[in-house]
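Q&A log
Question type: sequence-to-structure
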Amino acid sequence: MLKVNAKVLTRNIIVLTQNTIVLIKNTIVLIQNTIVLTRNTIVFTNNTIVLMKTRRTPLLSFHYPSPTMRDALRVRLGSLLMVLLIAQSIGAGDRPEAVVKYRQSVMKAMAAHMTAISMVARQEIANDRQLAAHAEAIHGLSLGLGELFPAGTDAAKVKSAARLEIWRQPAEFKAAGAKLESESAKLLQLAQQRGAASNAAPNFHARLASQVDAVGAACKACHKTFRKSDTE
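Response status: OK
Response body:
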């Protein structure tokens, strides 16, 4: 009888320990998501202030916003929601294979937006109505990239182009991500000037193309250290 009780007690202790580990993991994820929410709320507020200054509209104005301003605000809200969904999707129970597939999709999405905005910047496409939307997507996705590389999703465990340096050099990887965030924020601020007086300036597209190149350079610098080449 004592042996049976001892086995039951041991089994219950194991289950309790496992549940405690799951609780701790979920708590960590909750804290990370809270940090992401706070960071993106700050970004949203700063971008809104920039928009108000660009439009020369008082922050406490009660005028109904113009169509261009409404479009920009909708883009910001959509980007903020997108980043929050990214952070929440990488939970403690996600399969490593699913995480890798998801982050590859995010990278491809960023590349597609970069191609589109580059075509507008180089005046290959005259329609620039979605210019700010592309820039907002690039910047919004850049804010959540760090959460897409949790432990256990390296190339040694799941086949991908991610190098082990991502996990061996976390400070350098974080700095590379911060550079992309910074350059994409500048691109967004410039893209938001679509329709403003500065858009009519002869050098608007040249400045836009230059900042697109700066964002591309940030991507390439990160890939050089943290992404395998096609020949590896």
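Response note: Residues 2-226 form a domain with the Four Helix Bundle (Hemerythrin (Met), subunit A) fold (CATH 1.20.120.10).
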